[in-house]
Amino acid sequence: MKFSKRTYKSPQEFFSDVLFPLKNRRNLLELSSGTLISLAFRERLMLAVTAVNGCRYCSYFHTGEALKSGLSQAEISRLLSGEVAGCPPEEASAVIYAQHWAESNACPDPIALRKLQEIYGREKADAIHLVLRMIRTGNLFGNSWDYLLYRLSFGNWGK
Question: Which residue ranges make up each domain of the chain?
C-alpha cells in the first residue's frame, strides 16, 4: 500500500509554515475573536481544506469544533466529502476557494484570488487566507507525522 496523503516536501516548506504563526500572531489573535470571520465560517474553511489534504487528526478535532460552532453533522459530513451544498450562500464562494487553494498546494490561480478579494474585500480575504494557512500547517504536520509512522512501521501504522 502506498502512502497517499499530502505531506511536507522539504524542510523549507515545513519551517515556512511553522514560522508563519509567529510572524502573524497579532492577526491570529484578532481572528480568534470571531469578529471578522465567525467561528462557524472558520470551521467550514478548515474542513474544506482538511477534506483535500486528508489529515485524520484535523478531521477529528475540527469536527468537534464545527459541532460546537453550530454546524450540523450532515453539513460536516458533506464538507469532509468535498461538497459545498448546505453552506450559507455568503460563505460558499470562500469554501470553494479554500478547496481550490488546498488542491493547488497554496498557490491559487490569480483570477480566483482576485475574485475572492472582490467578493469579500481585502481585509476579509486576508483573514480567510490566514485560516487556510493555519489549517494547512496542521494538515501537513499531521500527515507528515503519519508518514513517519508509516515508514518506521514498514507500512503498518499511520495509514
Answer: 12-152
Query: Does pLDDT of 1 surpass 70?
Result: no
CA–CA gap between residue 94 and residue 80 (Å, rounded): 15
Residue (of 119, 42, 52, 121) closest to 87 by Cα position: 42
Query: Percent of the chain at pLDDT above 70?
Result: 99
- CATH superfamily, with its number, for domain 12-152: AhpD-like (1.20.1290.10)
CA distance 83 to 64: 19
Mean pLDDT of 47-60: 97
Q: Taking every pair of C-alpha atoms in the chain, what is the biggest distance, in angstroms?
A: 48
pTM: 0.93
Residue found by looking up cell 509567529 in the block? 22
Residue type, 62: H
56 neighbors 158 (Cβ within 8 angstroms): no
- If we measure between CA atoms, which residue out of 143, 129, 131, 138 comes closest to residue 18? 138
State the pLDDT confidence band at 82, using cuts at 50, 70 and 90: very high
C-alpha cell read off for 139: 494538515
